[in-house]
Specification:
This protein is of the alpha/beta class and 146 residues long. The chain has 7 helices and 5 strands; from the N terminus they run βααβααβααββα. α1 crosses α2 and α5 packs across α6. The longest helix is centred in the last third of the chain and has 18 residues. The chain is globular, with a radius of gyration of 15 Å.
């Protein structure tokens, strides 16, 4: 399963935002250990750097961006993605760009806490806990069939 992580899920881990950090951190661990392949939108990295630099300073912000680049693949944002985002029924342009980057990168799902904004998504959109439950169910199903 190739999952694109919305910026809010990434920030939940990096900023230890309660009550969301636990589920998001479990998803990071699943990306790190291989049951799922994770990616982030290119724009997520600039947002993370901006927020982290304000909160923690430039050096730590750069460290966080490096760590994200080590863990996640990056879904590109190019003219096709930006243009496509103008033509879909997702009201928030930032989320429309994320959606189109996910489609362009052939993501099988988007994980976000902002599911309402993705109601017209052409890709399954799951909350972090929903994705964890789906992965657990898939793991149980795989174990039962062997």
């Amino acid at each position: 399963m190739n999952v694109l992580f919305d910026t809010n899920v990434i920030l939940d881990v990096l900023l230890a935002r309660e009550p969301y950090v636990e589920a998001a951190a479990k998803l990071f661990a699943l990306v790190d250990n291989g049951p799922i392949s994770g990616m982030i939108c290119a724009t997520t990295l600039t947002t993370v750097f901006y927020i982290a630099a304000k909160d923690f300073g430039r050096r730590r912000a750069l460290d966080q961006v490096r760590a994200l680049l080590d863990l996640f693949d990056v879904a590109a944002v190019d003219g096709n993605v930006l243009g496509g985002a103008l033509n879909i029924e997702i009201a928030d342009y930032e989320n429309a760009v994320l959606h189109e980057a996910a489609r362009s990168a052939h993501a099988s799902a988007i994980v976000t806490r902002d599911q309402v904004d993705f109601s017209n998504s052409q890709i399954p959109v799951l909350a972090p806990r929903e994705l964890l439950a789906a992965i657990a169910a898939s793991t149980r199903d795989s174990s039962a069939s062997t």
